[in-house]
Amino acid sequence: MKRIDDLKAGVAVIILNEEKQVLLQKRSDVRLWGIPSGHIEIGETVSEAAIREVKEETNLDIKIKKLIGVYSDPNSQVFAYPNEKIVHFITTCFLAEITGGELRCNSSESLEIKFFEQQNLPQDLLKMHPQWLQDALANRDLAFIR
């Protein structure tokens, strides 16, 4: 196994608008598109972290609808940052609905944020995010554990 510097708990939130388009952000650190996501802070629940991260990155208020899955496979959950730090994430992924706020790129972490048609997603997606999207769109009652 390659070098891993840290293990972190993360959250990701899949948000669909009324037209069933997927909300993605273009990250400033790696210049790739991805689902709004981030770290869980000490003293925070996974749902609190998900709500906070979405607000910070998109200015949207959300309500968690369901758990999509928990992802820990090092083959997809190890992320190399531009500063060469390598982190293994255990990510809890949720499906959420928008309850308020106005969409805007609200963070130094994002270059752009917008909705995409499910069939027309950008090619430059972070490597773990297509699986999260596929699982969310599978419309399965039970959560995935991968």
From TrEMBL:
Protein name: DNA mismatch repair protein MutT
Pfam family name, one: NUDIX
Stored SUPFAM superfamilies: Nudix
InterPro entries: Nudix_hydrolase, NUDIX_hydrolase-like_dom_sf, NUDIX_hydrolase_CS, NUDIX_hydrolase_dom
Keyword Hydrolase: yes
Key words of the record: Hydrolase
Gene Ontology MF annotations: hydrolase activity
PROSITE patterns: NUDIX, NUDIX_BOX
Entry keyword Hydrolase: yes
Cofactor(s) needed: Mg(2+)
Residues of the Nudix hydrolase domain: 6-139
Similarity comment: Belongs to the Nudix hydrolase family.
Domain of life (superkingdom): Bacteria
Organism the protein comes from: Gracilibacillus dipsosauri
